[in-house]
Design brief:
By secondary structure, the protein is α/β, with parallel strands linked by helices. It has a single domain, classed as Aldolase class I (TIM Barrel), CATH 3.20.20.70. Helices cover 33% and strands 18% of the residues. The protein is built from eight helices and 13 strands. A hairpin with a 5-residue loop joins strand 7 and strand 8. Helix 1 runs parallel beside helix 2, helix 1 runs parallel beside helix 8 and helix 4 packs across helix 5. It holds the Pfam family DAHP_synth_1. This is 3-deoxy-8-phosphooctulonate synthase. GO terms for molecular function: 3-deoxy-8-phosphooctulonate synthase activity.
């Protein structure tokens, strides 16, 4: 993947990591615009290439009464408004083959969820749109196995592909990050570390995923130190009342300090 080929991407000459960040799900226009405005200001000051993230729908939910979205077209139009207003690229995840062409009308990067990354038809449909394809490593997959997912994209004629590590299952209700996977997967494509999903505690008996957001800084720092090309962070101004994944999201007011620290680590590494 060539970062500078992504439409509207900024600061590609800063030799910095890039950032995918935003709320887990698009809950409405006001919240999306507020979060985007804050992140854009921070990333411009720190010269971090930034892609705004928001799910236009949530298809993988523990319970049937869990929030799934505000309507596909409505959420995608909000993502487009974020892009137009702040002149930044956007990313959303897709779950069905038909989602690929639909979402590609509105966003710049199509993300394949971890549970679906082995679904050939879905990966190929995303690749065939010509958009950047972000492949999330399955919680059940080795780093080495991701080369085959990457090859599905490149064999479809699309070289704009990245891999995101979001942790590996450790028992039934916990995740771990094996940082050995970062240099391994960098052999196949640029690697992004999904910090917040790596700290999920899934399969809770109440049917709502838990998390350990107090460890976000630790995991993010380690990711930059071990060579991650990009960082993925879900953030919200009120995580306790977020409609999806609030238990592992970063409070928005903590984002600037975290990114400032990560830039300092990256700068140090660049001078080694």
């Amino acid at each position: 993947m060539k970062l500078d080929l992504i439409p509207k991407i900024k600061h590609t000459d800063a030799n910095n990591f890039f950032l995918l960040a935003g709320p887990c799900a698009i809950e409405g226009e006001d919240m999306a615009m507020l979060i985007a405005e804050k992140i854009v200001a921070i990333t411009n000051r720190l010269k971090i290439p930034f892609i705004f993230k928001g799910s236009f729908k949530k298809a993988n939910r523990s319970r049937i009464d869990s929030f799934t979205g505000i309507g596909d077209e409505k959420a995608l139009q909000i993502l487009k408004k974020v892009s137009d207003t702040f002149d930044v690229p956007t990313v959303t995840d897709i779950h069905e083959v038909s989602d690929a062409a639909l979402a590609a009308k509105y966003v710049d990067v199509l993300q394949i969820p971890a549970f679906l990354v082995r679904q050939t038809d879905l990966v190929v449909a995303a690749a065939n749109t010509g958009k950047v394809v972000n492949l999330k490593k399955g919680q059940f997959m080795s780093p080495e196995s991701m080369q085959h997912a990457v090859k599905k994209v490149t064999d479809s004629g699309n070289t704009q592909v990245a891999i995101t590590d979001r942790g590996t299952m450790f028992g039934y209700q916990d995740m771990i990050v094996d940082f050995r996977g970062i240099p391994t997967m960098k052999q196949y494509a640029p690697v992004i570390l999904d910090v917040t999903h790596s700290l999920q505690q899934p399969n809770q008996t109440i049917g709502v995923t838990g998390g350990r957001p107090e460890m976000i800084s630790t995991i993010a720092r380690a990711g930059i130190a071990t060579g991650a090309d990009g960082i993925f962070i879900e953030t919200h101004f009120d995580p306790a009342n977020a409609k999806s994944d609030g238990a592992n999201m970063l409070d928005l007011h903590l984002l600037e300090k975290l990114l400032t620290d990560l830039v300092a680590i990256r700068t140090t590494i660049n001078h080694l």
